[in-house]
From TrEMBL, chains A, B:
Keywords: Aminotransferase, Pyridoxal phosphate, Pyruvate, Transferase. PROSITE patterns: AA_TRANSFER_CLASS_5. Gene3D superfamilies: Aspartate Aminotransferase, domain 1, Type I PLP-dependent aspartate aminotransferase-like (Major domain). It is an enzyme of class 2 (transferase). Substrate binds at R394. This is alanine--glyoxylate transaminase. PANTHER family: ALANINE--GLYOXYLATE AMINOTRANSFERASE, AMINOTRANSFERASE CLASS V. One of its GO terms (cellular component) is peroxisome.
Amino acid sequence: MSARRGLWQLAQRAFASHAGRPGEAVPAISNAHRLAPGSSVIQVPQRLLMGPGPANADPRILAAQSLPLLGHMHPPFLKIMDEISEGLRYTLQTDSKYTLMVSGTGHAGMEAAIANLLEPGEKIIGIWGTRVADLAARYGGDVIELKADAGRSFSLEELTTALETHKPALLFLCQGESSTGVHQSLAGLGDVCKRTGTLLLVDTVCSLGGVPFFFDKWGVDCMYSGSQKCLSAPPGGAPFALSERALEKLKGRKTKPATFNLDMNLIGDYWGWFNSRSYHHTGMVSMCYALREALSIVQEEGLDNMWSRHLEMHEMLWHGLKKLGLEPFVERDADRQDPTPARTPLTRAGAGVTFCSRAPGAGVDWAAVVKNAMDKYYLEIAGGLGPTAGKVWRIGLMGYNARPQNVELVIDAFRDGLQKQGKL
Amino acid sequence: MSARRGLWQLAQRAFASHAGRPGEAVPAISNAHRLAPGSSVIQVPQRLLMGPGPANADPRILAAQSLPLLGHMHPPFLKIMDEISEGLRYTLQTDSKYTLMVSGTGHAGMEAAIANLLEPGEKIIGIWGTRVADLAARYGGDVIELKADAGRSFSLEELTTALETHKPALLFLCQGESSTGVHQSLAGLGDVCKRTGTLLLVDTVCSLGGVPFFFDKWGVDCMYSGSQKCLSAPPGGAPFALSERALEKLKGRKTKPATFNLDMNLIGDYWGWFNSRSYHHTGMVSMCYALREALSIVQEEGLDNMWSRHLEMHEMLWHGLKKLGLEPFVERDADRQDPTPARTPLTRAGAGVTFCSRAPGAGVDWAAVVKNAMDKYYLEIAGGLGPTAGKVWRIGLMGYNARPQNVELVIDAFRDGLQKQGKL
């Protein structure tokens, strides 16, 4: 340490040229914000993350993140990027050449989709509340919001009417809605969108890997997702895909996207869409290892097994909570009185996140149940968000976490939490 | 596997409701893009990354990335975010409350800075070639480019003249320029910027941790950096800071930034700048562990030792290559004939990346030297970029990699590569 300090004294004279004024001393270093010795050990307590996300990552994926770095343009790294693109083709069920991981979270994926597929002044019909409307308006979009009661999805007929009325450039749907858990059916929409000159954009952040998704067969034009839910990787990478139609739109833009960082012409080129591999940004090397490993796990398990496992765990939770007197927030197919196709419940599907609410008027303190689960079981379950705040619990059964012992623990925590309030 | 397949058959009926048409079968799953069994092991060969970046990450930082996930709003994770903010205060030498890690690479940091501090129609004076000019123009900026010959930086006098002539809203400078390695002096600029109503924005992607930087004392208003160079973490997080003046500008904007994903009002709130911690996006949990650990290492070593170490390794490389007859691309202070202050060489400083070129006309095949280094030593050195393409080698001595044995290996690889061409 003191030898180094001596070097620092000598170095100061050399560094003085940095100050732009020869001979002027480098400022003194302040230790005001330096950690005290011994206080620098990172504290990461073990938690079981059964809320809306992130879920616990598969340990195999965490281990992949500790592999040594490669250069972001090295051939072995480009091979890993190619494996991600190919793994996404299987996971999304598409033959599209245009798949990749956006360097960013699901929100970056959302912004990449809208910023690149919408030109200023064009119409977008969107559903996902104020966020997407805010985002699309910033990019100059003419935003038409479709409003639904919390927990309700749209029927093909409703969406067809909206598409034919407005003929928007972009239709934005969320397959698994994170604040209510409602599942949005996509089948049949692709044809209508083609007729009205609309690109079909789908958010699968909560749902990808947890429920069926068929990019090609459902005529989806753009999909983005997140790494941290049913794919069991840490948050940080956004799976992304475009159809040929969407790529034509991107290539034929009259204006550049306002964002340089998320310009898919440039990012696509880095990922080999156009065979030149030019540098746009430094790829997230560790995050790519993680997503590559996550997609390997999907391919090893197989989509059929993965979707079935999520469904099975969902049913197990549903039955367990039912016994405790809890009701799902989104109606279950088999139980519903209302035959309108507008209600396409998540509860038969297990789209990653599922939701329960006590029957109205029962006076359960939801927050106390959440707190008890964390304090006693180190288990995360969550309250509502936005339209469901104070009305529901949000429980995620996603990816690596969708296993029987975790479902049992969630049910135990609810039983214990309700008993403590004298509600059982 | 077959029990699961049976479940899938049963599940198909349940999933059919997803198709929006009761009774309609879910499409068949295609295995066209599924990996062949046994082919799914990730291949990460060991490389020594001594190019312009990323550098090899410190193994302690890689290990931190394999720690289990926390929720992005859990108190223990918020504590880690606070530790990052505080660690940045030390590393940047600032008392500013407004420090954080942007969820994205250095380019995301660049976009966050410009998108938030520039309103459409405002003037920005920038230096870093076509990229920043392109980016700023997308955000409606009136872009005035300052052009310098490759390898030259600007004097305080030149910048003062430009500031007084244009009175721009934003001055963009790069402390350590990655394609040439030139170091831009910052001292004295803050005062001029205050006088002309300009915010001083500095890119420290290549330089942070490698050379002196004093955010407060040099009057910097906004700084962004990258995680993958002298900080020795993987690429993916962008250290970011604002001064009080910059925050006032952000708060007083007449328009929203076009980007929602990088709106610093919203991101700052998630990081506790305004004491409410509202959800904006899902923080990159593993990447935060990594940067937190990287900043701990900076605090343990101390900035004086860290800067001295980089200088020492730089001098070692400089002397080693000199003996092989190579000349630095950017002039060395002690050697220069030209006394104009416009030339503030990197070579005395060791700002992460350093550059060498053969004396003109020597006819060395630079690419063969690079290829030999990789083939024989698994060592990355790089060629030039943009204005220096074909003219220089780029060698990085950054963070964890800035150690004597690595410098020796680089010199050995040059000796070997040059000998093979009969140039030694």
